[in-house]
Specification:
- Pfam families: TPR_12, TPR_19, TPR_8.
- By secondary structure, this protein is mainly α.
- It has 54 helices and two strands.
- Helix 25 (448-460) packs antiparallel against helix 26.
- The protein starts with a strand and ends with a helix.
């Protein structure tokens, strides 16, 4: 426990003061120090201990009392301690001035510090510690050169003065002489290795400035090891962690910054970095507070520039461009060159660009480009500025350079695509796709605008599936999924109902009731319109209708949605509704040329010729007569005026046709590649009966339209089909109509289907005509003309069928069904209340009904006769089928009988073979039971007698002849069994012999096979060739034939005799253990 002892005056006693138990009130200590007239170094020790304990007020109280005039007078002879007390107070107030945020208080602290240092100088003007303190004060005030002079005075007297070395190092660092500063820090450390950790902070900063980052980090870490609460070291390490530019490094850096702020909340650098962090988190209030604090506590130019920049971009992000520009300018003023800190120039350029001052913006961004010539963001921005200034080629140059410098910069390709979209659509599409792929690879969300542009470009190139995919990606999730049928519960309704109820928004209220929010963000309106247009192109008119209505539900002034709904209604032959929709669009803008042109066309189709002509002239006026579409519309008006009446006036018709031809020709003179004008000229020529010429024109127009992806002209296909129909070439007409339906209308146009049905009718293809009309009725159920035509086609088919000489029952039944359907259709038409509105005569309808009923009665009589004939034919066929079945059954029974006989024969043969095998086994057992000794005697007798064996063989032959008189059944029972036994013996012999000669017939081998081998011949048998299996088998067979009858004795059996012989010869050793016993048994029997 540290303590000091205060000597008691006029006594040898001392007052013991424990430093860790200093009283809270410094007056008690002061009373003791004054009363006992304690030495001044004890005053310093106690004051310093109070400072270490954080009791700054007690520290100041003791030092101020120690520097009072009374103390100075009493301790006049004590110079060093008095100077030390004054320098301590000067350093204290220098510290307060350094950390003070308010300028007035800061100046007051600096003044007090100056006064204390001056007072110390008056005591001893050469005291080094006083000059060091003055140098530190000057550094705190930012007076670098004066501080350098103060430290120089000290170093001239003492080259190894550590505080002066450190101060001089700080001065050199502020001058930018980092190598000199580093040498001074090293020198100070060499002179006093145990100096505080803050000394190594200067070494770390110099290393950092010199690019020696690893050594700088080591120096900062060493500072923290010596002083864990060193703010500067924490800030330096935090900056190095932040510069790692990864998540973990940023987290570590911000943790160190927060710790530094908690230790010392007035570090300007920490405040700037914290402000930067809170800017990115969106806490602008903290940004402004921290930067204002940083500006108040520092006079360092680069630091203030960073603070002004943080404050400027905070206002910039909030949309306060005026204040942002002001602080950007303040930041620029604190730096000398753009290279030192370029961000304020970039921000100021953005503010100027926002305000429309492109020249000033260009100047600022060019300064940024001077500092960083390969900066892609600056290049892209300059490209945009040049676009605004009308210098497109220079803009392309900058954007292409940006894309080349960084091929992974998606924004560069997006900007390039936007610039190329009006001049080179292919290159623009490639640029957009590249940008999309880069964004997807980077895990970023692709902007809606980009996907929409890709979809539009695909749509213009007729790549409809790719366009639909891109539009769906752009829309994402939303109410449109329920409206397009992409959810389990779909709200898609029938197209015609959707158009009729375009003002009815109940479907959207039902969506809200089902929990689906009906929201359409403004940036997706265009995408919804484009995808609706695409569905319309794909003939998904129901989906298109509901999407257009969604747009009108959220944005009622969207004119294009009204016009597209009007176009769909027009395509469905609902002219009145189409006109109503166009008028709704004109309520939004009565001068819209597209709406006026469309209204004129609709009025023309609605036979309102006067209004149509006036409307088309208004459309022409709206375009100032520069649009050829108005002239074409007037030409169409004259054409339709010529053909509009059934009872035509030839003179008036010729006049209108000639006028129409004149207008079409005028357009062709102005625009030779206008396909619509050429098509109109061909139509006029066809009306005049010049089919060959008009066909050539239509063919050329068709070729031109097919080669242009932006032109869709189904009319020319229909016109060509009309020409083929007029020329009687029905097959080509049918093909042309079908191709037109498939290519342009997805087989969903009722009018073209009516043309196709008329062609089938003229070609007398009644059933095809009926099927085509039924398809058309399905598409346009309100069109009664189609129903009437279907009834006529059914009637015509029935009449032609009944007029045939030979008819089948199915044909007659089909005729009856068709007549019933025709009667039902004509009856429905007759009962319709608005029949006259569709151009039908009620009497004519009733005539068809009566005629069909008459045919139906006649058809029923023919059906009964045909059914009777069919029944008779069916009975004959049934009788023939039964005969065929009986014959088949007989054949199968015969095959089954043959199969059973063959199977029985096989079973009998198998049983016979089994019996023969059993018999052979019994004989083999008898052979094995023969006496070996008798077999040897028999062998000796055979050797002596010699020829007797030959006689026996001949005798055996006679016996075999004799055996032929035996019954066939006995031989059949015996032979298979013997053969199987001999085969087994053959296998055993084969295993015993190493070689098998199939061609040789050695007599000794034949005897061995029969069991009659001579034991004396064993040695000869080793060298003799083995007999063949076939020879042994034949020999055994012959011997068994010879011996078997002789073994049949009623008194006894060979088995009993053999057993008796075995008992007699028991104990004898057999010579031929490896040979079978069958031969011995035969020898015993013969004996």
């Amino acid at each position: 426990m540290a303590c000091v002892y205060i000597p008691v005056q006029n006594s040898e006693e001392e007052v013991r003061v424990a430093l860790d138990q200093l009283p809270r009130d410094a007056s008690d200590i002061l009373d003791i120090l004054k009363a006992e007239q304690a030495p001044l170094h004890l005053w310093l020790i106690i004051a310093r201990e109070y400072f270490k304990q954080g009791k700054v007020e007690q520290f100041r109280q003791i030092l101020e009392e120690g520097s009072s005039p009374e103390i100075d007078e009493y301790y006049a002879d004590v110079r060093y301690e008095r100077i030390a007390i004054l320098n301590a107070l000067g350093a204290y107030y220098s510290y307060l001035g350094k950390i003070e945020t308010r300028q007035r208080e800061k100046e007051e602290h600096f003044i007090l510090a100056t006064q204390y240092y001056n007072k110390a100088s008056r005591i001893d003007m050469h005291e080094p510690s006083t000059w060091v303190g003055k140098g530190q004060l000057l550094l705190a005030k930012g007076e670098v050169e004066q501080a350098f002079a103060a430290f120089k005075i000290v170093l001239e007297g003492d080259h190894d003065n550590v505080p002066a070395l450190l101060g001089q190092a700080c001065v050199e660092f502020n001058r930018g002489r980092y190598a000199d500063s580093l040498e001074l820090y090293k020198r100070a450390l060499q002179v006093y290795p145990n100096c505080p950790g803050a000394v190594r902070l200067g070494i770390g900063l110099c290393r950092y400035k010199l690019g020696q980052f690893q050594k700088a980090r080591q120096a900062f870490q060493r500072v923290l090891e010596l002083d864990s609460e060193n703010v500067e070291a924490l800030v330096a390490l935090a900056i190095m962690d932040l510069q790692a530019n990864d998540a973990s490094g940023i987290q570590k850096g911000m943790d160190k910054m927060r710790r530094a702020f908690e230790i010392y909340p007035y570090c300007a650098m920490a405040l700037n970095y914290l402000a930067n962090h809170f800017f990115f988190t969106g806490q602008h209030f903290l940004v402004e507070q921290l930067t204002e604090t940083a500006l108040a506590v520092t006079n360092h130019g680069p630091t203030k520039s960073h603070s002004f920049y943080n404050l400027a971009r905070s206002y910039h992000s909030k949309g306060d461009f005026e204040k942002a520009g002001y602080y950007y300018m303040a930041s620029i003023k604190e730096i000398n060159k753009p290279l030192e800190f370029v961000f304020p120039y970039y921000g100021l350029g953005q503010v100027k660009l926002k305000s429309g001052d492109f020249r000033s913006a260009l100047s600022n961004f060019e300064k940024v480009l001077e500092a960083y010539p390969d900066n892609c963001e600056t290049l892209k921005t300059l490209g945009h500025i040049y676009v605004q200034l009308g210098q497109v080629e220079k803009a392309q140059e900058f954007l292409k350079k940006a894309a080349k410098i960084d091929p992974r910069d998606a924004q560069a390709f997006l900007d390039l695509g936007e610039l190329l979209i009006s001049s080179d659509t292919g290159a623009a599409l490639d640029a957009f796709k590249t940008a999309r792929n880069l964004l997807e690879k980077g895990g970023q969300a692709v902007p809606v605008e980009v996907l929409n542009n890709i979809g539009v470009l695909h749509f213009e190139r007729e790549e409809l599936e790719l366009a639909l995919e891109s539009f769906n990606k752009a829309l994402g999730d939303g109410v449109w999924l329920a409206l397009t049928g992409n959810k389990p519960k779909s709200y898609v309704i029938e197209a015609s109902a959707s158009i009729l109820d375009y003002k009815d928004m109940q479907v959207f209220h039902r969506l809200e009731e089902d929990g689906i929010p009906v929201e359409l963000p403004w940036n997706k309106v265009t995408v919804v319109f484009n995808i609706a247009r695409l569905h319309e192109q794909l003939h998904n008119t129901g989906i298109a209708n509901i999407l257009y209505r969604l747009i009108l539900f959220k944005y009622p002034d969207y004119i294009d949605a009204y016009l597209r709904l009007a176009a769909i209604a027009k395509a469905r032959n609902n002219l009145q509704l189409s006109i109503e929709l166009v008028n709704e669009a004109l309520k939004v803008n009565d001068k819209c040329p597209n709406a006026l042109s469309m209204l004129g066309d609709l009025e023309l189709k609605n036979d309102d010729w006067v209004k149509a002509k006036e409307t088309l002239r208004s459309a022409s006026d709206a375009t100032d007569g520069k649009d050829s579409y108005a002239i074409l519309s007037l030409g169409n008006w004259n054409y339709f005026a010529a053909i509009r009446n059934e009872k035509r006036n030839p003179k008036l018709e010729a006049t209108h046709l000639e006028k129409a031809k004149e207008l079409y020709t005028r357009v062709l003179v102005q625009h030779t590649d206008n396909l619509y004008a050429a098509n109109g000229a061909g139509v006029v020529l066809a009306e005049k009966g010049q089919f060959d010429v008009s066909k050539d024109i239509f063919t050329q127009v068709q070729e031109g339209a097919s080669g242009n992806v932006f032109v869709q002209m189904p009319d020319v296909w229909i016109n060509l089909a009309h020409i083929f129909f007029a020329q009687g070439n029905f097959a080509l007409a049918v093909k042309m109509y079908q191709n037109c339906l498939r290519k342009f209308y997805n087989n969903t146009d009722s009018q073209i289907l009516l043309y196709l049905a008329r062609t089938h009718y003229e070609a007398e293809q009644w059933q095809e005509c009926k099927k085509t009309l039924l398809r058309a009725i399905h598409l346009a159920p309100s069109n009664y003309t189609l129903r009437f035509d279907a009834g006529v086609a059914m009637q015509k088919f029935s009449t032609s069928t009944l007029q045939k000489d030979k008819r089948t029952a199915d044909e007659v039944r089909s005729t009856v069904a068709e007549l019933e359907n025709a009667v039902r259709i004509f009856s429905q038409l007759s009962a319709a209340s608005n029949l006259h509105l569709h151009g039908f005569d009620e009497k004519k309808i009733n005539t068809h009904v009566e005629y069909c009923k008459h045919l139906l009665e006649a058809a029923k009589v023919h059906r009964e006769a045909a059914e009777r004939e069919e029944q008779q034919n069916r009975q004959k066929q049934e009788a023939a089928r039964q005969l065929a079945l009986a014959e088949e059954a007989r054949r199968k029974a015969e095959e089954q009988r043959k199969y059973l006989l063959e199977r029985r024969k096989q079973e009998d043969e198998q049983k016979r073979l089994q019996k023969a095998e059993e018999h052979f086994k019994r004989v083999q057992e008898q052979w094995k039971s023969s006496n070996p000794s008798r077999r040897r005697d028999r062998s000796e007798i055979d050797d002596e007698e010699g020829g007797h064996s030959e006689k026996r063989r001949r005798k055996g032959g006679k016996r075999r002849k004799k055996d032929k008189s035996r019954s066939r059944y006995e031989r059949d029972d015996e032979e298979p069994g013997m053969m199987d036994d001999l085969e087994e013996m053959d296998d055993e012999d084969t295993n015993r012999n190493d070689q098998d000669d199939d061609n040789g017939e050695n007599p000794q081998d034949l005897l061995a096979a029969a069991g009659l081998e001579d034991s004396d011949m064993e040695d000869d048998e080793v060298a003799a060739a083995p007999s063949s299996a076939a020879g042994r088998r034949r020999q055994a067979w012959s011997e068994s034939d010879d011996d078997e009858p002789s073994q049949r004795r009623p008194e006894s059996s060979p088995v009993r005799e053999n057993l008796a012989e075995q008992q007699e010869s028991e104990g004898e050793i057999r010579d031929d253990n490896h040979k079978p016993n069958g031969g011995d048994a035969l020898d015993d029997e013969e004996d």
